[in-house]
Amino acid sequence: MEVIGGDALGPLWDGPPREAMSQDRRELAAKIAMSLKLFAKFYGSQECDQIEAWLDEMVLRGEAGLFEAPRTVDVVSHRTKYFFGNGYTYGQGCQGKEELLPLGSVDAIPLWLTTLVIQPLVSKGILPQGWVDSVVVNDYRSGGSIVSHVDPLHLFARPILTATFFCPAKLVFGASFDPARTVPPAYSQMLPRGSVLVLDGTSANDVTHGMRPEDLFGARRVSIVLRHVLDHAPTYLPPGTLNPRERSRLIRGVQGRWRDPASKTFFIVRQLSVAVLSVLRGDPDEGEEPFSHSATWRLTPREDGLVCNTGLLDLDGLFPQRLQWKPLNPNHEKIGFTWIRLHGD
């Protein structure tokens, strides 16, 4: 494994001549260089092939709507983002005001990503075990770009790690993204396929970084960004967020015995556990059981309601004799489902 740093004024430099740089700019470039660490060949060719095959499978899952959480995939022109573990608000108007999305808004970190991408970094002592709890996969196609930014200081601990797959790219620091490219980069860092870049100090905190369309050297580049959420990071509470009293009312309201409209499946709710019973054709008079215990589901309280299996129940769906569950993932399930309270409950 080769470990190299960038070269602000060497072959990666694409700004004005050295003598044209101000002293402040020279000092900034030196500080950026000192705060970066590049593991240029961290993942070998075979490892890259394996990770890239999983990335292709991830894209197919996204296109088929197979992710469970509603905010896992975000698609714009020339770029698709996949959030795992912890997602967050971002984009124009959010800088400095970013917030974590409520738990359950994005899918958990996939096992293949933990095994193939994160664990090798842990094994080499680059990251502590269990440190990564937020992963963003950026899939850039030709013409795509990473807007100039600083990873939110109030959301994520340092360092920030980014791994590169498919084609190489160049990450630029302190550059403007206007059409005239008025401000050239203070520093440029080449990112080969299979590399891991560690940003800390000045490069992570004091200067913006990004990737312009001309910094992508191929038809497709995927970056996997690994981060750790700060303990007291603010969380976005969407309209309709339940307060503790409303959440308690929901939990109390679902207790008891329920059935589906066809009376083929019955649900017994005790606290946060749901016993699912299926109707059998046996004759109770002959000692045969009329029901079969087919599953146990868990009620999971969330900021916006209760999650059970593939449904979400909010206050709009709570009635004395009926529960109207909404689909948890509207991209996957088009309609919800109904439970009807049994007589005598």
Automatic annotation (TrEMBL):
Its EC number is 1.14.11.53. GO terms for biological process: mRNA export from nucleus; mRNA processing. It is found in: Nucleus speckle. It catalyses: an N(6)-methyladenosine in mRNA + 2-oxoglutarate + O2 = an adenosine in mRNA + formaldehyde + succinate + CO2. GO terms for cellular component: nuclear speck. Keywords: Dioxygenase, Disulfide bond, Iron, Metal-binding, Nucleus, Oxidoreductase. One of its GO terms (molecular function) is metal ion binding. InterPro entries: AlkB-like (IPR027450), AlkB-like_sf (IPR037151), ALKBH5 (IPR032860), Oxoglu/Fe-dep_dioxygenase_dom (IPR005123). Pfam families: 2OG-FeII_Oxy_2. Its main location: nucleus. Gene3D superfamilies: Alpha-ketoglutarate-dependent dioxygenase AlkB-like (2.60.120.590). Residues 131-230 form the Fe2OG dioxygenase domain. PANTHER family: RNA DEMETHYLASE ALKBH5 (PTHR32074:SF2). Belongs to the alkB family. This is RNA demethylase ALKBH5. It comes from Noctiluca scintillans (Sea sparkle).
